[in-house]
């Protein structure tokens, strides 16, 4: 059955009615979940297999039957490992029905249906007993419930419930424990993603409002491929600290907690950012370790993975520290997230605090509407100077400017450069905010005047793909009746560019797996491909390409050019062509031209 759904078109701003299958949502979830990345992670799979073999052997050595509970089974891979290692029976729990169905087919295809039961429930709903989902409690607990932040997928409540209701006391657990590490650093690059910085325009300083500069910011984790941030882009202010560990073989509490680590500052600087990652020990002795540490902490290249990365946490406020000063770094957590705070060491001498500090939250609203990438753009001095140079060349004392972008500083720049009137910008004397869509703007809003300068970065919060920012062109077209005959349009044009590349690792998130650790997982490949074919494979995918190294296979090429001095044509613009390559990926980005010398890239 299909139904019509209203979906906003980021490029035109219009509401498009699209015929969608009732199964669209889960197809989209499957297509974007990158399950293949986990199966291609040989280091992860190998360490799990080693840990499972060791756990099964320890239970057998005690003369017990091995009953395994696998929570979050996914493809059923870990359950099949357990049975192959000698487990007598395995209960595999998977809450997502399409994945549970795939696991059922994979288990059957590999000949384990008589020893593995797929339970399509959340683990907290699983029952034990003669008429229950499980006949008896398990004595081996196998899980893969982790995300980049370790606990973000609800690992703690799931473990807490499992120990109370589903597994025996003293059970074996794979992984056996997890340990979280953190390091306090100063980094202008990373800090620019968190707070709006002062900037200069023609020798005049522009300061962020106090509500913004004093705001603690968004509490959510910033997960990135930290291996792509070179060590010279930050200054360590303290050692790598072991913040806390969780023993999964014992009862686990999901209650909020805090843990502290004390140390003397290694150097003077501004404490701004905490870099964090974790590792998991697959056995009690700690001899089988799967680490998420960035590659620059190891002499040899480590296994690449995108499902588990590293975390960047921004302190609520930057703080100057002196070399040798005693500091205490505190990590707090609730059921699903972590946050960090920094105090002088005298505040906390212990490593465990029962009353965790309050989680920071945004009170200025800016961190709720601007992404961290957007903060980075606004703080980019080179980018700002490009805008200022372009504006300086066209702004006159009698200019009437209208800014078309979301949360842009360009109208403020225009005002500081001497424009007579500026509309649709931040609160400032001489700048008027218009909280309406461009197609709703009338001459009354302009007090009878006409627009002489139309400006935009362009940036819109709904834009994900390079061509989405063409919404500026549609806005310019809607405002054509209000423009002076010789109005200046900035940017004046845009070019959609393309290059073919070979990715070093990113290809893994889409590549079929086939066989994983000796098990046929073909049904999962088929499920993912079916969901990709449903619609996702026909759409481009936004990626922060600086995190994913690649090699260009062609020269960059201009695909289409858009002239903003003209209105949007009534007929579609089409472009056809070919490239001399047969595989890998295509990268697209837009270049917006403000003059023949000034242009801005927008990925």
UniProtKB/TrEMBL annotation:
Biological process per Gene Ontology, one example term: methylation
Alphabetic keyword roster: Methyltransferase, Repeat, S-adenosyl-L-methionine, Transferase
Limits of the Protein arginine N-methyltransferase domain: 176-343
Single GO MF annotation: protein-arginine N-methyltransferase activity
PROSITE patterns per UniProt: SAM_MT_PRMT
Domain of life: Eukaryota
Keyword Transferase: yes
Pfam families, per the entry: PrmA, PRMT_C
Protein name: Protein arginine N-methyltransferase 7
Organism of provenance: Oncorhynchus tshawytscha
Organism taxonomic ancestry: Eukaryota, Metazoa, Chordata, Craniata, Vertebrata
């Amino acid at each position: 059955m299909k139904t019509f759904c209203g979906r906003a078109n980021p490029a035109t701003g219009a509401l498009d009615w699209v015929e969608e299958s009732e199964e669209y949502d889960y197809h989209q979830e499957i297509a974007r979940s990158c399950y293949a990345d986990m199966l291609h992670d040989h280091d992860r799979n190998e360490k799990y297999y080693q840990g499972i073999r060791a756990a099964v052997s320890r239970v057998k050595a005690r003369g017990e039957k091995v009953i395994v509970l696998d929570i979050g089974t996914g493809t059923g891979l870990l359950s099949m490992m357990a049975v192959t290692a000698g487990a007598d029976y395995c209960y595999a729990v998977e809450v997502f029905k399409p994945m549970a169905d795939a696991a059922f087919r994979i288990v059957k295809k590999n000949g384990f249906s008589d020893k593995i039961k797929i339970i399509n429930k959340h683990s907290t709903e699983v029952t034990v007993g003669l008429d229950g989902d499980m006949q008896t409690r398990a004595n081996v607990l196998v899980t893969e419930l982790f995300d980049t932040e370790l606990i973000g997928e609800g690992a703690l409540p799931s473990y807490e419930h499992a120990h109370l209701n589903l597994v025996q006391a003293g059970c074996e657990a794979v992984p056996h424990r997890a340990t979280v590490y953190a390091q306090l650093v100063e980094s202008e690059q990373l800090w620019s993603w968190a707070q709006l910085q002062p900037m200069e325009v023609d020798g005049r300083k522009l300061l962020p409002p106090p509500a913004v500069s004093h705001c603690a910011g968004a509490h959510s984790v910033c997960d990135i491929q930290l291996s792509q941030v070179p060590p010279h882009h930050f200054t360590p202010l303290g050692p790598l600290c072991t913040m806390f560990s969780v023993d999964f073989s014992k009862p686990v509490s999901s209650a909020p907690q805090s843990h502290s680590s004390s140390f003397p500052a290694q150097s003077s600087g501004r404490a701004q950012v905490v870099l964090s990652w974790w590792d998991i020990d697959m056995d009690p002795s700690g001899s089988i370790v799967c680490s998420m540490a960035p590659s620059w902490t190891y002499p040899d290249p480590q296994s690449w993975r995108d499902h588990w990365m590293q975390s960047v946490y921004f302190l609520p406020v930057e703080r100057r520290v002196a070399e040798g000063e005693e500091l205490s770094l505190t990590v707090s957590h609730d059921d699903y997230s972590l946050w960090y705070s920094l105090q002088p060491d005298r505040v906390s001498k212990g490593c465990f605090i029962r009353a965790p500090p309050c989680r920071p939250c945004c009170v200025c609203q800016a961190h709720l509407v601007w992404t961290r990438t957007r903060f980075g753009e606004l703080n980019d001095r080179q980018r700002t100077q490009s805008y200022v140079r372009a504006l300086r060349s066209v702004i006159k004392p009698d200019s009437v400017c209208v800014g078309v972008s979301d949360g842009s500083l360009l109208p403020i720049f225009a005002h500081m450069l001497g424009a007579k009137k500026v509309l649709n910008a931040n609160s400032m004397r001489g700048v008027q905010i218009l909280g309406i869509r461009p197609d709703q703007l009338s001459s009354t809003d302009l007090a009878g005047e006409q627009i002489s300068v139309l400006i935009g970065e362009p940036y819109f919060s709904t834009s994900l793909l390079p061509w989405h920012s063409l919404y500026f062109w549609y806005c310019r077209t809607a405002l054509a009746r209000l423009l002076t005959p010789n109005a200046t349009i900035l940017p004046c044009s845009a070019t959609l560019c393309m290059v073919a590349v070979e990715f070093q690792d990113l290809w893994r998130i889409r590549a079929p797996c086939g066989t994983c650790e000796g098990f046929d997982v073909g049904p999962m490949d088929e499920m993912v491909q079916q969901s990709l074919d449903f619609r996702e494979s026909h759409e481009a995918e936004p990626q922060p390409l600086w995190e994913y190294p690649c090699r260009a296979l062609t020269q960059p090429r201009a695909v289409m050019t858009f002239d903003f001095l003209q209105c949007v044509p009534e007929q579609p613009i089409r472009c056809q062509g070919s490239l001399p390559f047969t595989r890998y990926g295509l990268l697209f980005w837009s270049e917006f031209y403000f003059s023949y010398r000034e242009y801005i890239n927008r990925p």
